[in-house]
């Protein structure tokens, strides 16, 4: 016998946890659509030459290649590879369908991606990403950058995961500041950017030691100015604008970064994002080199150990490998699998009740036709209903419903039939009541709507 087991790095859930996970995805999808984003799905695998357009990156070293059994003996690099994110497939998609799309193109995509991560708790080789991007043709105004935090706010408010902060910065602002310190070389800037992005994980002392160490060799006074700069955090809307004003005009790159971030912050207020839920944070850089302007990270205030739960930013040229058209864009991504796993570990998310609202029990075999008819009426009223197909002891039927997370059990036996009623047992409230058979669906709909209203608060 082969021992049944999953491979390391996957999340496989029992039904009630799967329901909770699906509901998280539903909230994300609903809010993406509410902001006018359109759904896109791309194949799980892409042509290797299309997918691996960059070389040497950490992500590319984790690619899973796909090989059919017929091609195994032919050698060479496999023709196909599994997607490792949703951005590269988006670039290919937009370049391929450029003449059929309306720009700015607003897409959302909720699909699994695959990376050969080292197996450890909370790191996944197969996981859902939930992305939105706005892609422009030739140009894309910075106003679109300001819409992303509004979407993040809507999603995480509805998810009900407690207080959170959307942290904002701009790569131009950082690069301009470095230029003012004499760090003008692009590669050296990128190294410093990646290092300061680790501030929250490594701590200020460790980051400063690296900056003044042999790999970077920055002077003590330069490192001190960088550390003072990247530890700036705003605590209100007015404070965010004041901290941007305090930077002055400086060089052209810094001035552009300040102007863009100021516009984003001002538009957040116009979109009704509460000022307690966003902050300017000059250490946010995002490790990926293709971000060029606004960058975002979202953290849960009560659970900082989880790290960023939603991040993204502005990039200038999405699809340069596939088209000569200039396609600037801005986007965010939620790693839903990792987020769900961590929220469950932290006790913020619990197993859901069953997606089945009612189970119609079977008191004796002669009543099967009645049970099926009652279920039909409940389903017609929009109530998810399961029917017990075998007459078993009532205690066993109740035990089954309770274990499956079904709240209501409807019973229609000889006594109920004689009086034209249905007995309803509420397993959560541990009480039962009778309802005229004709009024069952309406009564249960009221009960379920009350339950959902309580669940949303």
UniProtKB/TrEMBL annotation:
It comes from the Bacteria. Residues 22-339 form the Aminoacyl-transfer RNA synthetases class-II family profile domain. Signal peptide: none annotated. Belongs to the class-II aminoacyl-tRNA synthetase family. This is Histidine--tRNA ligase. Homodimer. It is an enzyme of class 6 (ligase). It is found in: Cytoplasm. It catalyses: tRNA(His) + L-histidine + ATP = L-histidyl-tRNA(His) + AMP + diphosphate + H(+). The lineage of its organism: Bacteria, Pseudomonadati, Pseudomonadota, Gammaproteobacteria, Lysobacterales. L-histidine binds at residues 85-87, 115, 129, 133, 286, 290-291. GO terms for biological process: histidyl-tRNA aminoacylation. The gene is hisS. InterPro entries: aa-tRNA-synth_II, aa-tRNA-synth_II/BPL/LPL, Anticodon-bd, Anticodon-bd_dom_sf, His-tRNA-ligase, HisRS-like_core, HisRS/HisZ, HisRS_anticodon. GO terms for cellular component: cytoplasm. The keyword Cytoplasm applies.
């Amino acid at each position: 016998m082969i021992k049944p087991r999953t491979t390391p790095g996957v999340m496989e859930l029992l039904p009630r946890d799967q329901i909770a996970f699906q509901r998280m995805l539903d909230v994300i999808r609903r809010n993406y659509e509410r902001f006018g984003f359109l759904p896109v799905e791309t194949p799980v695998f892409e042509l290797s030459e299309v997918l691996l357009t960059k070389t040497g990156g950490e992500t590319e070293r984790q690619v899973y290649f796909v090989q059919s059994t017929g091609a195994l003996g032919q050698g060479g690099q496999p023709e196909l590879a599994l997607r490792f994110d949703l951005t590269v497939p988006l670039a290919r998609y937009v370049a391929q369908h450029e003449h059929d799309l309306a720009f700015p193109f607003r897409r959302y995509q909720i699909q699994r991606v695959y990376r050969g991560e080292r197996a450890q708790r909370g790191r996944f080789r197969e996981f859902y990403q939930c992305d939105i991007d706005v892609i422009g043709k030739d140009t894309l105004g910075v106003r679109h950058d300001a819409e992303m935090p509004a979407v993040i706010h809507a999603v995480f408010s509805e998810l009900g995961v407690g207080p959170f902060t959307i942290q904002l910065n701009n790569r131009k602002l950082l690069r301009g500041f470095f230029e003012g310190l004499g760090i003008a070389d692009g590669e050296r800037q990128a190294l410093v950017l990646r290092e300061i992005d680790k501030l929250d994980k490594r701590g200020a002392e460790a980051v400063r030691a690296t900056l003044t160490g042999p790999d970077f060799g920055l002077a003590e006074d330069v490192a001190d100015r960088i550390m003072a700069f990247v530890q700036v955090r705003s605590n209100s809307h007015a404070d965010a604008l004041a901290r941007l004003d305090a930077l002055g005009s400086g060089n052209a790159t810094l001035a552009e970064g300040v102007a863009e971030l100021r516009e984003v912050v001002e538009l957040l207020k116009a979109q009704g994002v509460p000022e307690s839920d966003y902050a300017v944070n000059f250490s946010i850089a995002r490790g990926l080199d293709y971000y060029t302007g606004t960058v975002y990270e979202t953290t849960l205030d009560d659970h900082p150990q989880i790290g960023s739960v939603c991040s993204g930013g502005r990039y200038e040229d999405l699809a340069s490998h596939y088209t000569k058209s200039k396609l600037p864009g801005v986007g965010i991504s939620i790693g839903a699998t990792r987020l769900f796993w961590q929220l469950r570990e932290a006790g913020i998310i619990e197993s859901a009740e069953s997606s089945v609202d009612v189970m119609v029990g079977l008191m004796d075999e002669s009543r099967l036709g009645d049970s099926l008819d009652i279920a039909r009426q409940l389903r017609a009223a929009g109530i998810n209903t399961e029917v017990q197909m075998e007459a078993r002891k009532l205690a066993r039927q109740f035990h089954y419903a309770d274990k499956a997370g079904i709240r209501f059990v409807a019973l229609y036996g000889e006594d109920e039939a004689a009086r034209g009623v249905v007995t309803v047992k509420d397993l959560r409230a541990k009480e039962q009541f009778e309802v005229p058979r004709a009024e069952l669906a309406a009564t249960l709909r009221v009960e379920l709507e009350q339950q959902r209203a309580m669940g949303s608060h």
